[in-house]
Every structure is written in structure tokens, then in C-alpha cells.
Amino acid sequence: MSNYFKADLFKIYKEHRLFLSLGILLTLSILSAFLLRGNEGYTSSVIQLLSQFITLFFIVPANLYFGEDFSNRTINNIIIKQPKRNQVFIYKALSTIFLNIVYVLIAYISSLLVGTLLSETVDFHLALTILTNQIPLFLCITFLCILLFVTLKRIPQAYLIYSLICLLFDNLSHLISSNLLHLNLPSDVFLFQSLQNAESISVLTFILSTVSLILYCFLSYFIFSRKEFK
């Protein structure tokens, strides 16, 4: 798989595949640092703000590894050379996770460094703690995105549905459960909201994210292993 990794790196560099999204993310991160300067608890505040939109950028790596290969039929070249689909899936999933973590690190580090330049009190230990707490949630959301790309036939459909889930799912679920079903669900069951308040992660949130991660991963692999590439 090292040859595929080198080929992907060359494609990313040669075709500037990630440059636009990284530029937008870096701009938003720096802008967030300026908007929140002077806030008490700068570190947690800026990470909370970034967590509201950082998962939207997970679309880009998922599309790179699971979207375009399918739509352009280039996945056939890999399957022919590497007939064991489990190895192909593992490589693509790990590459997607790696790039997503890179996106998160770029956002957090750039905003915290700008905060330091603005003479804000930046707690890097707290930032690391929050990031550690967020990892299970990020992994869960990553495989949710992968699941959409391997399930849906058209890339725009995956883009739209994933974006709606990121932006609206928790709010709509809370609205329906409280107003229509009259259920007072704890905020810990809403994963995207928990992502924004990850200074401490509850046992319930951890269990839900882990179970969802396993489910999304299994479904993604199951569909990928049986998908017909024409």
C-alpha cells in the first residue's frame, strides 16, 4: 500500500487537491482567534467555536479516497492490483482519518498560535486534553462520512446529506424529542453538541460514540466489500 500512499501524496501535491480547503480552514481559524480575543477562557472558547464547523471539512478527505475513486472508476485499478478489498478499505479509511486529524491540528494550532501573538493566555495542556476527549467523536463522524460516500451513488448527495447532519441533526433531534415526544434527553446523547463541549466527556457520550463508530465502520466495510465497481 506504500505505493498507493506515495501516488496519493503526489496527486494531492500535483493537483492541489487539498489546498483550497486548507486555505479556507486556516483563514477561518485565524479569524476565530481574532473574534474571541479578550474572552475569558480563550483556549476552550476558540476550540468550541472551531468544533462547530471543523467536521464539515471531513468531506474533503472522504471524497478524495471514497468519492472520486468511485465516480471516476479509478478504484478498479486498485482492486485489480490488490484484490483483497479489506486491505484497500483499511488503507483508505486510515488515510481519511489521518487527513482529518491533520485538518483538526491545523485549525487548533493556528488559532492558538495567533492567540499567543495577541497576548492571550493560551493553555496548550487544556487544548490537548480537549483534543484527546474529542478523538472518539472525530473517529465516529469520520466513519459516518465514509459510510455516506460508499452508500450513495452521487458525490453531491453525500456532500448535502453529510452537511445537513453536521449542521442540523442535533438541533432537530433535540427539538423533536423535547417538543413532540416530550422527552428530556441529556445533552450527552447529541454527539455534535458534545464535540463542542469536550473539556470533559461523559461516560454516556464515550459509549455512544464508540458504539456508533463500530457500527459505521462495520457498515462501511460491509457495503464497500460488496459494492460493484463498473
Structure description:
This protein has one domain. The model has no long low-confidence stretch (mean pLDDT 85). The protein is mainly alpha-helical and 230 residues long. It is globular and about 55 Å long. The protein is built from ten helices and no strands.
Overall structural class, as computed from helix and strand content, comes to: mainly alpha
Terminal CA distance = 23 Å
Shape: globular
How is the biggest beta sheet arranged? none
Summed over residues and divided by their number, the pLDDT gives a mean of 85
Rg computed from alpha carbons, rounded to a whole number of angstroms: 19 Å
Count of distinct structural domains:
1
Strand segment count: 0
Helix and strand sequence? HHHHHHHHHH
Query: Which regions have little confidence, pLDDT < 50, spanning 5+ residues?
Result: none
Per DSSP, the total helix count is 10
Query: How much β-strand is present in the residues?
Result: under 5%
Helix content: over 70%
Protein name: ABC transporter permease
Keywords: Membrane, Transmembrane, Transmembrane helix
